[in-house]
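Before a colleague's protein record goes any further, I have to sign it off. I want your independent view on whether this chain really folds as the tokens say. The record follows directly below this note.
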Amino acid sequence: MREVRTLGPTTPLPPPESANADGIVAVGGDLRPERLLEAYRQGIFPWYAEGLPVLWHAPDPRTVLLTAELRIDRSLRRRLRRQTYRVTLDTAFDQVIERCATVPRPGQEGTWITADMIAAYRSLHRLGYAHSAESWLGERLVGGVYGVCIGDAFSGESMFTEAPDASKVALVHLVRQLDAWKISLFDCQMWSEHVARLGASDWPAARFHAVLRELTALPTRRGPWRFDRELVATGW
């Protein structure tokens, strides 16, 4: 089994190809914006529990959604046509990440979104790299998703819902907007039935990292983001 490197304050992340059988690349270090951006450019992301050191992951295979290949099933398409929710971009990032950390999920105890993680991604949001899409029922935030964009690649981090399909509606609007901006890759990180139904599939890590290197070398569309008006209410 490959040895997992322990990071010091200035130790660079090892390459994603050095991940062990559990997909862990390194342990420790910090969540400074520079470190996080270095990680995402390499397809590495932090995922750990409160009270543990930071664990840096690069799983193989990698679940990926090409934004041009988004699939929307009939029930979700009906929901979109009814325009049950008002959807926004980068309007309530702080609320979205807090709700992702606190809203219970079936079959999941606790959260991996620690206080340090919340602070770190808020910093990335202020720098224009982390973004959120929000679903509103009237003036109440009922669903959302957030992630990190570098170049033409977006890495989805987490989502929450407090109303039927609210997070899915936010996610579909986000992916559709990414495609309009030619941001072609949505990194789902790991497989779930939810993202598979939207068209995501597993890629071998070698393929994912080769594509990612090309996409993250392109200019980054920094925030705050707003939807193109013509995309929000048309074409469902």
Summary: The chain has a mean pLDDT of 93.
